Amino acid sequence: MFDVAKIRADFPILAREVNGQPLTYLDNGASAQKPQVVIDAITQAYTSEYANVHRGLHFLSNLATDKYENVRQVVAKFLNAGHEDEIIFTSGTTEGINLVSYGWGAEHLCPGDEIVLSVLEHHANIVPWHFLRDRQGVVLKWVDCAPDGSLDPQAVIDAIGPKTKLVAITQMSNVTGTRVDVKTICHAARARGVATLVDGSQGAVHGPVDVQDMGCDFYPITGHKLYGPSGSGAIYIRAERQAEMRPFLGGGDMIDTVTRDSVSYAKPPLKFEAGTPGIVQTIGMGVALDYLMQIGMENIAAYEAELAAYATAKLQNLNWLNVQGTAPGKGAIFSFTMEGAHPHDISTVLDKKGVAVRAGSHCAMPLMQHLGVTATCRASLAMYNTTDEIDRLVDALELCREFFG
Questions:
Q1: Tens digit of each residue's pLDDT (9 = 90 or more) over 215-251
Q2: What are its E.C. numbers (predicted)?
Q3: Do both 120 and 258 map to the same domain?
Q4: Are 266 and 256 in contact (CB under 8 A)?
Q5: Distance in angstroms (rounded) separating the CA atoms of residues 319 and 97
Q6: Which end of the chain is more exposed for a tag (fewer CB within 10 A), N or C?
Q7: DSSP character for 103?
Q8: How many domains does the chain have?
């Protein structure tokens, strides 16, 4: 049974106050808080287990290497990858997508080749493709969402043409909470010989992921959104795609031999992991993923669906609040505006009541332009949030309404 009170007790920061009010942390879409088991694992790694990995023959190096490499198995289990060697460690989704852009896209895309994107994408899944557009003449094809924020998978499939080489699509919008039917898109793209990248930065947080069933070629995740440390992440790259890629970064640990005249590379995954990695961050991410799997991603998804339904009903009662994105089955992410008040001002008033939300464009400017707004406030819920906290959000919004008239 999902016990939110027990889960909340695992996160020490949730017991603090802000501005004399209980902290109501609703900025999880930007970064989630950390459970004590992750904090303890990081502390232990630095205080009694730290050394560089892979190259040492002494006790501490072997211990750190074992703990670090074990996380590859944890991530593979979390994503249901076919093999742990399909997991590449990164600093987060942004690095993962750039790895694909440089290591695969720059090798295989020519002038006039197309990348299909949706307007829902985060900048991390836009800017690396702009690099290829600027440098190699790649064409970006955009697919718009419906007025309610939903994205028709057939519209994405219909955008695939004879010059399309990649479909890069989010699993869940970080602005509207829209869930995208990425499985249908990936299977249709693979049938046409087109590669697929699914941005899992939000989607992996809110429900179970099976990359084999999904059928994607690339699937990056971010550790700090998954209750792990910042600076941690991973990307699933299907083995067949790894064979088509060159390294993104060059240096130590990713080589087999180096001479004055030549370089030969290590086999994946090390081929794509140059230099000293985020050792402790990665270990912490592994503990966070184990923690999530013990709770059960299906259980988390079911609880968050209840939270989303409750929040939707409450926010709908505020007829002066403009919620952006009401797609069926959306996740527990709510972006909104209020006439007469800038999102930054709304966020400031909410903070005085201890309610933490985010304000701005949320690294999704094309979506902002499509929605006809310059910025929104965003309340993004997590597995440790409660209906009482949603009520606090509503009370703070009503105070905001009174303040700004």
A1: 999 999 999 999 999 999 999 999 999 999 999 999 9
A2: 2.8.1.7
A3: yes
A4: yes
A5: 39
A6: N
A7: I
A8: 2
Instruction: Please identify every residue annotated as catalytic.
Output: 363
The residue range of the domain holding 92 is 39-294
Choose one of 294, 328, 360: the last residue of a domain. 294
**pLDDT confidence of residue 269:** 97
Q: Report the alpha-carbon angle 251-252-254, nearest 5.
A: 85
Looking at residue 130, its pLDDT comes to 98
Q: Are residues 265 and 137 in the same domain?
A: yes
Give the CATH number, domain containing residue 221.
Answer: 3.40.640.10
pLDDT score of 36 more than 80: yes
Dihedral-angle region of residue 394 (phi above 0 means left; psi in -120 to 50 means alpha; beta otherwise): alpha
10 Å CB burial of residue 127 (0-12, 13-18, 19+) is middle
Residues 105 and 245 in one domain: yes
**Same domain as 300, residue 290:** no
Residue type, 216: C
Q: Is 289 in contact with 226 (CB distance < 8 Å)?
A: yes
- Distance from C-alpha of 130 to C-alpha of 124, rounded to nearest angstrom: 11
Q: How confident is the model at residue 56 (pLDDT cuts 50, 70, 90)?
A: confident
Residues above pLDDT 70, as percent of the chain: 100
142, 281: one domain: yes
Q: How far apart are alpha carbons 228 and 93 in whole angstroms?
A: 13
290, 366: one domain: no
**Residue 353 amino acid letter:** K
Q: Amino acid identity of 93?
A: T
115 and 199 co-located in one domain = yes
The predicted-structure confidence for 115-161, as pLDDT tens digits, reads as follows 999 999 999 999 999 999 999 999 999 999 999 999 999 999 999 99
Residue 205 near residue 177 (C-beta atoms within 8 A): no
Q: What is the pLDDT of residue 1?
A: 77
